[in-house]
Automatic annotation (TrEMBL), chain A:
Subunit structure and binding partners: The glycine cleavage system is composed of four proteins: P, T, L and H.
Free-text cofactor note: Binds 1 lipoyl cofactor covalently.
Modified residues (N6-lipoyllysine): K60
Gene3D superfamilies: 2.40.50.100
Domain of life of the native organism: Bacteria
Lipoyl-binding domain sequence ranges: 20-101
PANTHER family found in the cross-reference section: GLYCINE CLEAVAGE SYSTEM H PROTEIN, GLYCINE CLEAVAGE SYSTEM H PROTEIN-RELATED
Source species of the chain: Pseudomonas mangiferae
Name of protein: Glycine cleavage system H protein
UniProt KW Plastid keyword: no
GO BP: glycine decarboxylation via glycine cleavage system; protein lipoylation
From TrEMBL, chain B:
Class of the enzyme per the UniProt entry, highest EC level: transferase
Binding residues for substrate: E197
NCBIfam families documented for this protein: gcvT, PRK00389.1, PRK13579.1
Protein name in the entry: aminomethyltransferase
The organism of origin for this protein: Pseudomonas mangiferae
Length: 127, 372
């Protein structure tokens, strides 16, 4: 498995063997959201970085999942339609949201690596 | 920010139990415990949940004229409220709008009121301004905590502390000694389940809460599940499903207007906004509150616009979310009268998409009150 990258919005990204990037939300994010009851997945189309690609609904509230980098969504996790709880149970695995082809692969390096993300979590916890 | 928030007597206990705290009505309140909203909700329907609702306002009205005086502010029969009974009531304004909803119990020597946290200061001022000369108004805001024990096991749990509560039926009210402390207990709640609300002096609240939580059936339940439980039970949340902009007729709360206070009743009217309410009962209302079942898995939340088949806006959602016991989203909202009939199909706009919804009966899950 390739190493993960992260956004400050608590999304994770993983580069797959075919060069596409899988996106999900982190364990911290799913814990903060609480029980996920619905995920509105993106359409198979191009999204700009920072645009609303997906929405995750917990019992409590709806939260946006932003497109981490500009790119074309090529696959969505249809399993979440029937089992949105996978986002809570296995956020880094079965709870993935979508895959996309980035417009510029180099942009990935601008995102947080595991160490930087861990520091962000620590800073959040200490705040 | 948390420094400016008020704390209930159970605040330290919430933190100890690992609650996630949020600001609510000026209080730092537990929205959920480590169990999480979904499991807390299901646990309450299956066994018993303990809720801290000490942020709500408790009041006593004393004096021989108290019941008659209170009747000038609510469209409800208070004069004939039997000792040991509680009744749901509404404060109305001159336009018939709802200023707050409340519970009124007859203790035998006083009327005991429970009002919403966000409205309690305004309610106290309202009472003092309009009936302060006619009865003694005692605020218990700082002296009493309020616990709700809800769920099918609530009665057997509370009966371990006071066997007599098992005999109480829905909406009965009694002075009960719990752990040697004089409490008020009503068999009522805000979940659709059997259960009790317990008014306890603040200095004894934590001991009582710990004692109830020590019972194997009982889990602490936060505001998140309180909201999903009451929504499934079809119960209104003040400020959302009704407000000063809606009358009891529009809010589909005419059942709360006592027979004797209605237009053909022995004590018809005599509360603020009676003329408007009676006119609405006679002529109908332009829009009213209904239950709504989204036909897809998308939760439809407060504020979502509702349109008809032609795309015309015909209402909006006042409360909405996911119903864990139903396993599906549930909502309430206001619809123009011509769309408010049961089974009418309308559409909510959620993030630019149309979600089909059906006008549905409430409660969405059966109420399980204990009626003896």
């Amino acid at each position: 498995m390739s190493e993960l990258r992260f956004t400050e919005d608590h999304e994770w990204l993983r580069v797959e063997a075919d060069g596409s990037i899988t996106v999900g939300i982190t364990a911290y994010a799913q814990d903060a959201l609480g029980d996920v009851v619905y995920v509105q997945l993106p359409d198979l189309q191009r999204y700009e970085k920072g645009s609303d690609a997906s929405t995750v609904e917990s019992v409590k509230a709806a939260s946006s999942v932003y497109m981490p980098l500009t790119g074309e969504v090529i696959a969505i996790n249809e399993g979440l339609n029937d089992s949105p709880e996978r986002v809570n149970e296995d956020p880094l695995g079965e709870g993935w949201f979508f895959r996309f082809i980035p417009a510029d692969t180099n942009e990935l390096a601008t995102l947080l690596d595991q160490d930087a993300y861990d520091r962000l979590l620590k800073a959040t916890a200490d705040a | 920010m948390s420094e400016t928030l008020a704390k209930t007597p159970l605040h330290a206990l919430h933190l100890e139990l690992g609650a996630r705290m949020v600001p609510f009505a000026g209080y730092d309140m537990p929205v959920q415990y480590p169990l999480g909203v979904m499991k807390e909700h299901l646990h309450t329907r299956e066994k018993a949940g303990l809720f801290d609702v000490s942020h709500m306002g408790q009041l006593l009205l004393r004096g021989p004229d108290a019941a008659a005086a209170l009747e000038t502010l609510v469209p409800v029969d208070i004069l004939d409220l039997p000792v040991g009974m509680q009744r749901y009531a509404l404060f109305t304004d001159e336009q018939g709008g709802i200023l707050d909803d409340l519970m009124v119990a007859n203790t035998g020597d006083a009327l005991f009121l429970v009002v919403n946290a966000a409205c309690k200061d305004a309610d106290l001022a309202h009472l003092r301004r309009h009936i302060g000369e006619r009865c003694e108004i005692v605020s218990l805001f700082d002296s009493r905590a309020l616990l709700a024990l809800q769920g099918p096991a609530a009665a057997s749990v509370l009966a371990r502390l006071a066997p007599e509560v098992a005999k109480m039926t829905f909406m009965q009210f009694a002075a009960v000694r719990l752990l040697g402390v004089d409490c008020y207990v009503s068999r009522s709640g805000y979940t659709g389940e059997d259960g009790f609300e317990i008014s306890v002096p603040v200095e004894h609240a934590e001991t009582l809460a710990r004692s109830l939580l020590a019972e194997p059936e009982v889990e602490p339940i936060g505001l998140g599940a309180r909201d999903s439980l009451r929504l499934e039970a079809g119960l209104c949340l003040y400020g959302h499903d009704m407000s000063e902009r809606t009358t009891p007729a529009e809010a589909s709360l005419l059942w709360a207007v006592s027979k004797v206070r209605r237009t053909d009743g022995a004590r018809a009217g005599g509360f603020p906004g009676a003329e408007r309410l009676f006119a609405q009962q006679r002529d109908g209302v332009a829009s009213k509150r209904v239950g709504l079942l989204p036909q897809e898995r998308t939760p439809v939340r407060e504020g979502a616009e509702i349109v008809d088949a032609g795309g015309q806006v015909v209402g909006s959602v006042s409360s909405g979310g996911f119903g864990p016991s139903l396993g599906a989203p549930v909502a309430m909202g206001y619809l123009k009268a011509e769309h408010a009939a049961l089974d009418s199909e309308v559409w909510a706009l959620v993030r630019g998409k149309r979600v089909p919804m059906k006008v549905a009966k409430t409660p969405f899950v059966p109420q399980r009150y204990y009626r003896g």
